[in-house]
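Researcher: Next entry in the queue.
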Amino acid sequence: MKTSFDTFISEFQQTDNPDEKYTLIEQIISSLAIIPYGHKNLTKSEMIAHKVFVILRDYVIINQLRQKHAEDTSSQKVLLNVSLLFMNLCNNINETNITVFKSLFIHKPLIDELANCLHEISTHGKYLNDPSRLRSVSSLLIALQKIRKHNFTALEYSLIAPILFSVTQCLCSSYALDMIKSLERNFIQELDEVQMLFLYAMPLYVKWYWDYCDPEYFVKILRILLNDFTAWFTSCQPESYLQRSSQIDAMIRHLNYFLVRPTEFDSMNIFSEEFYDDYCKLVLHWSSILSSILAWSSCTMNVKLAARTSVQILYNLTLHLNVLNFMKTIPSFILMLLKVTDLDHDEVQLNAYRCLGKIMIEADIKTMTKPSKIAAVYIAFLKDTIDDSKKTERFYSLLESLKSKFLSIVFFYD
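Model: Structure for this entry, 414 residues:
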């Protein structure tokens, strides 16, 4: 593989003809496309650091983003293929190659061009009729999101700040609201590239960068999007959730997380009062969805995944104390969560117990069976997260939930 890369570099540098350069790029992209993205040789640091990827970044991504108008279909296709390649390669980031990935992506010209492209989308609606470019932008945002799962320095954050600012501008624009209003009232639809950018890629990106964003931006985004999202979501039949499309599934998970849990515990009160009515509507609809999931006759993987999303979002809603008090008034809510703990899925069980720990009173908790099972689920997840830098947020969230009366009683009586 390295020999092929070296040959490409030699031929690329020997020609000044743009058409010949693009032909060479198309050839190397085609050769990379047939290699599994998890291939151990391709993910080695020395391979990612090869100059071939720098050329793909500079000559294709940066140059094409700099073009205000698409030159031709071929060049747009090359931009998309390189962006998809970079996104997929980022699935293989680990502690040994993260430095070279950062060097490749945290590059000022790339950051500036991507931020400028997003700015033009938010202010003028530019490129909204260019699905290929929009998919390229989505792919690059997702690639940067995957890199962010590993620790960033303050300097690295400052370098990517223009992208974060431009993404928040997009989410505060009328175009983001238009994307929600354009959704069909069902869970089975497929999304177009504009919807995927605004309702999936952008919320996913901002979710990983909120520590460096002014909370007022999040309040503004929620004021613009939450009410219409809630209206759309609650208009869809709960029973159809198990038939959701993969795109809707991804959109719902990331947009719900973003709108329900936009920041961590210390700042949660900023959002709880103003958005209480919408949050309560979401609680009721997710409860109906979870009830319909549990009524399913067989415990398939789809059932488990649907339950995982439902219970995770319900747990996020418990972080708003006034919403938690509302949840305590829902008939049979506790019984439904107890039924969820019987599903053969550790994460579903964990979040169900975390919800129960906030909702149940002490007398109810002491009558529960299987306290050792509850303790075992928590201990297993703590062991899984304690040494994983990518799961720091999850680890501290678990520690936070251990402070509840529920867990104190469970561990004491066990």
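Model: Residues 215-235 form the longest helix (21 residues).
Researcher: Noted, moving on.
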